[in-house]
Amino acid sequence: MTDLPPLRDVIARHGLQATKALGQNFLLDEQLLKRIATIPGPLAGREVLEIGPGPGGLTRAALKAGACVTAIEMDRRCLPALEELSEAFPGQLRVIEADALTIDHDSLFEGPYDILANLPYNVGTLLFTNWLSGESWPPKWRTLTLMFQQEVAERIVSAPDSDGYGRLAVLAQWRSKPRIAMKVHRSAFTPPPKVMSAIVHVTPTDAPTGTSARRLARVTEAAFGQRRKMLRQSLKGVPGALAALEALGIDPSRRAETLTVADFVQIAAAIN
Q1: Which of 7, 58, 69, 91 is geometrically suited to a Cys-Cys bond with 28, CB 3.0 to 4.6 A?
Q2: Which residues neighbour 102 within 8 Å (Cβ) at sequence distance 6 or greater?
Q3: Which long-range contacts (CB under 8 A, 24 or more apart) does 238-244 make?
């Protein structure tokens, strides 16, 4: 590995400006990036997937930690900067020019891998729910370490009867353990976003038996799609859901935000 120029110099030399249309906000503080790269644990020799590396700040931190990184980037303006990183870390970096939403991420790796990314704000939630929604469990990914807007991060870890609790919390918590690992001030980014950010770290846990990701997604989508309505109203369009409430002794006059993750799993499991 050769000495690398500061990230600000890389951005200036390649004329890179963060694009709002792509949800880009670049992190340039290398000490902060190094701390983020430690959240998944020691990366030496591990396969890592990064979405939206931009000029390569987090990529650089993961490579320095010894990871073998596969980076998916759709902004071709960033490819020359990433190519320089590939030359500085021979054999450690593979760059794929593509839209990450169009690729089967598991197919890129022979074995388990970790996902580490400062996700583009405009697709972060969709990518996250896709990684959580596979029917096969445990997933091929070992950990998720992801930057979100702080409001989204808090929704992921929210408990029942709290303002942020909803479908995202249920999908994240029913068979994995999410936590907020670090909060990141808006001033750390270039350009600074209007909101604060936070890093969520997720590890898979055992999946409850008797239900499926698709069925749980259907129940939670209906329940929280009309979250201010009682369950008897919000779930009436889901075949078998009202009968499941009765069988489980769940009062149909309750609202979705009062149910626990375990309650939703039981409802999904009870639907024939």
Answers
A1: 7
A2: none
A3: 238/271, 239/271, 240/270, 240/271, 240/272, 241/267, 241/271, 243/270, 244/270, 244/271
Q: 7-204 and 213-270 share one CATH topology?
A: no
Q: Please tell me the distance from the alpha carbon of residue 236 to that of residue 245, in angstroms, as a whole number.
A: 11
The answer to whether 61 and 30 have CB atoms below 8 angstroms apart is: yes
Encode pLDDT of 2-34 as tens digits.
578 887 888 878 777 756 555 557 788 889 999
Highest CATH level, class, for 7-204: alpha beta
Q: State the Cα–Cα distance between residues 153 and 158, nearest whole angstrom.
A: 9
Q: Provide the residue type at 268 as one letter.
A: A
Residue with tokens 């935000």: 257
pLDDT in tens, 80-98: 999 999 999 999 999 999 9
This prediction's pTM: 0.91
Average pLDDT over residues 45-53: 96
**What are the domain boundaries of the chain?**
7-204, 213-270
Contacts of 78 (CB under 8 A, 6+ apart): 14, 16, 53, 54, 55, 56
Per residue in 215-254, pLDDT (tens digit) is 999 999 999 998 889 999 999 999 999 999 999 999 999 9
Identify the sign of the CA torsion 194, 195, 199, 205.
Answer: negative
